[in-house]
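Internal tracking record. Fields below are filled automatically when a chain is submitted to the structure queue. Please do not edit lines marked as system-generated. If the sequence contains nonstandard residues, flag them in the REMARKS field before resubmitting.
Queue: standard
Priority: normal
Entity type: single polypeptide chain
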Amino acid sequence: MSEHIQSMRADIDGPVRQYEYGDETVLVADFGPASGSVDIVDGTAIVVVDGEQHEFSVPAGAARAVMNNGVVSIEVER
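SYSTEM-GENERATED OUTPUT FOLLOWS
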């Protein structure tokens, strides 16, 4: 497993972490203790948290996105 960290946006506290596994990449972003939703549309993850919308690019092949307790996980198959 390798880990890559990038800032999602300057105004959001949590970075996006990217974990590389054998045949899968997992992107993880922590929005803190919040409720919300996530969806993937045309290579963009759209996250709505506490009425605010945040967007960030995801690699091609993003297969699944879930949000649990403010933590967004996006699975990308290679």
